[in-house]
Design a protein that fits this description.
Helix 9 links the parallel strand 6 and strand 7. This protein folds into 2 domains: 257 residues, TIM Barrel (Alpha-Beta Barrel), CATH 3.20.20; 64 residues, Antifreeze-like/N-acetylneuraminic acid synthase C-terminal domain (Type Iii Antifreeze Protein Isoform Hplc 12). It has 13 helices and 10 strands. It is of the alpha/beta class and 341 residues long. It is 34% helix and 15% strand. The chain is elongated.
Length: 341
Amino acid sequence: MKDRVLIIAEAGVNHNGNMEVARQLIDAAASAKVDYVKFQTFKADTIVSKTAKKADYQKTNTGNKVDTQYEMLKSLELSDQDHKELISYCKQKNINFFSTAFDTKGLDYLNSLGFELFKVPSGEITNFPYLRKLASFNKPVILSTGMSNMEEIEEAIKVLTSQNLTHKEITVLHCNTEYPTPMEDVNLKAMQTIADTCKVEIGYSDHTLGIEVPIAAVAMGAKVIEKHFTLDRSLPGPDHRASLEPNELVNMVQSIRNIENAISGDGTKCISKSESKNLAIARKSIHLNKALKKGELLSENNLIALRPGTGISPMEWKNLLGKKIIKSLPAYTLLKKEDFE
């Protein structure tokens, strides 16, 4: 993993089975300057039965044109040739190609392509053969945790670390698998619970509308952010409506980088380089609020704190009381130590 936040733009199946749309998604991700653009690697025949029903959000977003998950997913498969073309196109655009597999054959396929990082989708967190296969690669893993509890997360990590993979090579993403996720169900504090309990790096896979929550997640310690995006939310398909459009993706990335810089300090409270020039302008010094003659004493009645802060600090106020002026001074004089005994 990089030192900075890793941003994954999830194209997923928002290409709608159209390679030209897939390339346009890569263009948008590259323009937004994300780290990875991620697709999905699956064969409908090996991940879902032909009678499995669609989720409610899938029904809402695809209508009744397709009745089963199988039919829907069959139309969204990417072939071996598709993968290779998209990988080549990503190289042209200087962006990393990424994909999620949904079964052991898919994992083997991605491994054969030279993948050095793998992502476990939320639905596979309880798939023991899948996790065991992934552990055998001994490569870094990002684990999504939608629809799971702490016990299931810990069990999945136990399988992943059953061979040579270490906790340092696992990043766990807090996630809610509802499209879109209601704000009241986000529960970002759970991300920190995962970090404390599992002793792993944390991140957040977001399915809310908008960009506020992933930005907040970065402020709370997320090292990986994953977010669905599309060319147009009005397009037909299961994930478009809970996805960002290209301009929103750009804004999210820029905002995350800003927050990343804002929290990058060492925690020491000190005067920063950028603000030091404003010290004299914004702070105050002790001035006279009336004219004084030589020999008069400084008192509460003839002192006032005024800008600029180039003289004696008002924190020295009590130390000046009773001091004798050694020469006559006009009102609003900025006092100097040589003005009094």
